Amino acid sequence: MIHVLTTGGTIDKIYFDANSDFEIGDSLLPELLAEANIHDGYSLRELLRKDSLEMTDEDREMIAAAVSQTSANRVLITHGTDTMAETAQALKSIAGKTIVLFGAMQPARMRRSDAVFNLGFAWAAVSLLPEGVYIAMNGEVFEAGAVRKNLKAKRFERA
């Protein structure tokens, strides 16, 4: 069983105008899972609806508590990309679980989003990787504490 937590981020953003006004909407993850033909073997919990730039230490503690409290050994977390590496680092002390964070560089509601690919890749990663905390983005897996987002290149890379 894979426990899925949603926390918001770009993957769930809704843009309202050309000035980039946005809000974090309902998670599209149930729809994305169905589109990927994943219908069982998971439980889903919406934890937060935040842009990751607004994440606080208290939010990270809430995420860690939710991960620690689940009986599942495999946990998949949607997260905004800007502070995903910080949250992954904050989860490193949790033992006995495989934890994978993923998100999207473009909202799932947009036609050219990387959300569906990242979900499938992260699903495979959480299913196959050994215990630990990882970020799975755009076809690469990074260990927590050894990754950073390269804003200029719009991708994750080893730190």
Automatic annotation (TrEMBL):
It comes from Marinobacter confluentis. Keywords: Membrane, Transmembrane, Transmembrane helix. Pfam families: Asparaginase. InterPro entries: Asp/glu_Ase-like_sf (IPR036152), Asparaginase/glutaminase-like (IPR006034), L-asparaginase_N (IPR027474), L-asparaginase_N_sf (IPR037152). The keyword Hydrolase does not apply. PANTHER family: 60 KDA LYSOPHOSPHOLIPASE, L-ASPARAGINASE. SUPFAM superfamilies: Glutaminase/Asparaginase. The chain crosses the membrane at residues 115-137. GO terms for molecular function: asparaginase activity. It comes from the Bacteria. Residues 2-150 form the L-asparaginase N-terminal domain. Substrate binds at S52, T81, D82. The active site is at T10. The keyword Cytoplasm does not apply. This is Asparaginase. PROSITE patterns: ASN_GLN_ASE_3.
